[in-house]
Amino acid sequence: MKSMKELGIDREELFITSKVWFTHLHPDMVEKSCRQSLKDLQLKYLDLLLVHWPVAFKPCDKGFRIQDSITKYTVDLIPLTDTWKAMEKLVDDGLVRSIGLSNFNKRQLDEILEHARIKPVNLQIEMHANFPNTKMAEYAQSKGLVVTAYSPLSSMAKFQEKGNALTESWVQRIAETHNKTPAQILLRYLVQRGDSPNAQIFDFNLTDDEMHTLNTSGTNERKFTLPGSECHPNYPFHDDY
Fold first, then answer.
1. Domain encompassing residue 116
2. Is residue 232 part of a domain?
């Protein structure tokens, strides 16, 4: 907030999102997590707060480190609807303006929609040319949710050797056709699907054939699988979508 004031930027000009981590999905912890985010960001409210994952683990003093093979974490069996009720209360209390989900599958989204008093406005899912995630994106959109793509370039340090769409020949070929970078092609691909706007990609259009290539030429492999949590009853990626 200090930097915003120094730059003369009003809070209302920004759309700020945070997430509730999966060690804070118990209803008693949701507000605590939100207030900590507000404190860290020096804000009075968030524009959007997401449930980061549908799987829940009990809090521990050491935090949660995905790469840590030594620290053990205890599964917490928390109904998704209980977490959502706590999210709704944050809207009632004026701490957040909108609430949404991340990494939920179709079945879990349906469960929330069936019981929600305040509907989720957004679903954030992994989506890129190497994992189009078309079924989940189209289903969420059919239910009125805005879909946000994370990892839109399918690029991450641990995955540089395999499945990096930025280096795929079919992406580079399309980029050369339009005199654009591979990153701009991958972002334009998502925009044309109606998923994720970004800058400097609105001065050209991909042809139907190019869209088909981007939809079908990739590995169709999910990169972010939350390893170690596959045994959790709410693990979202056993389902088709």
1. 10-120
2. no
